[in-house]
Design goal:
It contains 14 helices and eleven strands. By secondary structure, it is an alpha+beta fold. It folds into three domains: about 270 residues, no CATH class; about 45 residues; about 60 residues, no CATH class. The strands form four sheets. Strands 2-1-11 form a three-stranded antiparallel sheet.
Length: about 425
């Protein structure tokens, strides 16, 4: 009997101390979790990513991610690109091709080539994929490239062909340029926001936390502890009184007043204690890892980094980020924009040479080496530097005395005949 009474007393104590039982009983009360569950649930439930709506627009509220979107999309849009063709011994631009002016200047009456590439890159970075309708004339030549909203479905028709379905049209797969950054099946792209919602959501929460902190006049949250029990209407009156005279940006730095019979007990730590600045910097590092943009370009570089290390990171950005984006565009366009008879011999190509040239001293040494070894002509070097050709600059030079290769060959042949 004594054991039974002891067990019942123990269970009664556990029940009284159980916060979830207390929350359940508060349903019949006018205060506590039942009154405003949204303010209390974080005391009992773990953080859920679904609490933060990470979407195309909200993700751009994180400054580091917004900056990364601009860096990648604007760099891709500003790179020189053109239609090229294979010739004997190399490749050259193909200005007479029907696609040349379309890609070089204006893919559509609605936007120019810069806006076209910038928008597509931004869509892929936010949505995971982007779509373009290939409009052709009766001769089969491309006359317009129209950016489309996200497709709603991809299916195979009864005729065995594949189709993309959009809100206002259904198109054959070969009529659509489909760019994607990450895919598990090779067909549909996956949004990085869906894969990394917690990382982006953390940055959004940090910004919201800082905004709320300063909106409340930098006053930390806490509890107003009464000396005696209070009625619900008295609680509401005390809270309104506190908010009126002690909270908000207009009260920052001014003296406050405590309602009679209440004591203030702080709960939250300050921004310094919560390492707010360090947390924001960590989010920037996460964005750099997600997008492949060096942290220096996100205006949050390491203060100990040198110019040489920063320059090396810029080269890595070109090689491991921008070049990959260029290949996404090139491969999709080269496989769908050209007829079968031109495929492999005519193609779209980005030019990354300008971003890989380095500083003036490095370029000078590089060009000098190529000139002395007869790899490039003087006019080819001038072209790389964006300068007009010069008369007599199309001949290769040799290391002996930097004279014309052909003249040197003729002199050697003449000397050989005299010796014979």
């Amino acid at each position: 009997m004594a054991a039974t009474c002891g067990y019942m007393a123990k269970q009664s104590l556990i029940s009284r101390l159980n916060p979830f039982k207390w929350a359940q009983r508060s349903i019949i009360s006018s205060i506590g979790p039942a009154k405003d569950w949204s303010n209390w649930k974080h005391l009992f439930l773990p953080y859920q990513a679904a609490d933060v709506p990470v979407g195309e627009k909200t993700a751009q509220s994180v400054p580091a991610y917004f900056r990364a979107l601009n860096v990648v999309s604007e760099q891709i849009a500003s790179l020189p690109w053109s239609v090229h063709k294979q010739i004997e011994g190399g490749i050259e631009e193909y200005p007479t091709h029907p696609l040349y002016k379309l890609l070089k200047f204006r893919p559509s009456p609605l936007y120019n080539t810069f806006e076209f590439r910038e928008t597509l890159t931004r869509q892929v970075m936010l949505r995971g994929e982007a779509f373009v309708h290939i409009h052709r004339n009766q001769a089969g030549s491309v006359r317009e490239l129209e950016i489309l909203p996200k497709a709603t479905d991809f299916f195979q028709g009864k005729n065995g062909l594949y189709y993309w379905k959009f809100d206002d049209r259904t198109l054959l797969s070969e009529e659509v340029l489909h760019f994607k950054a990450y895919s598990l099946d090779g067909i549909r792209g996956i949004s990085p926001l869906a894969l990394l919602s917690d990382s982006i959501g953390l940055g959004m929460l940090q910004i919201k936390h800082g905004a709320n902190h300063f909106a409340n006049g930098t006053t930390s949250s806490g509890l107003l502890v009464p000396d005696a029990p209070m009625k619900p209407e008295q609680v509401d009156q005390a809270l309104n009184y506190w908010d009126r005279f002690n909270s908000g940006p207009t009260r920052s730095g001014r003296a406050g007043i405590m309602p009679f019979g209440l004591k203030y007990q702080a709960l939250a730590s300050s921004l310094k204690d919560s390492q707010y600045v360090e947390g924001r910097h960590l989010t920037t590092e996460d964005v750099a890892n997600i997008t492949g943009v060096p942290i220096d370009l996100l205006n949050s570089g390491d203060k100990t980094s040198t110019y040489a290390s920063a320059e090396q990171r810029m080269r890595q950005f070109v090689l491991f980020t921008l070049r990959t984006w260029c290949k996404r565009f090139e491969e999709e366009m080269n496989s769908k924009l050209f007829p079968a008879r031109e495929m492999g011999r005519t193609f779209v190509k980005f030019n990354l040479d300008g971003l890989l040239r380095g500083d003036t001293e490095a370029r000078s040494t590089y060009y000098n080496t190529l000139l002395q070894n007869g790899v490039l002509t003087r006019n080819e070097v001038r072209e790389l530097e964006g300068r007009n050709p010069m008369p007599g600059g199309d001949s290769l030079m040799v290391p002996l005395n930097m004279q014309d290769v052909n003249n040197t060959s003729n002199e050697q042949e003449g000397n050989g005949e005299e010796d014979v």
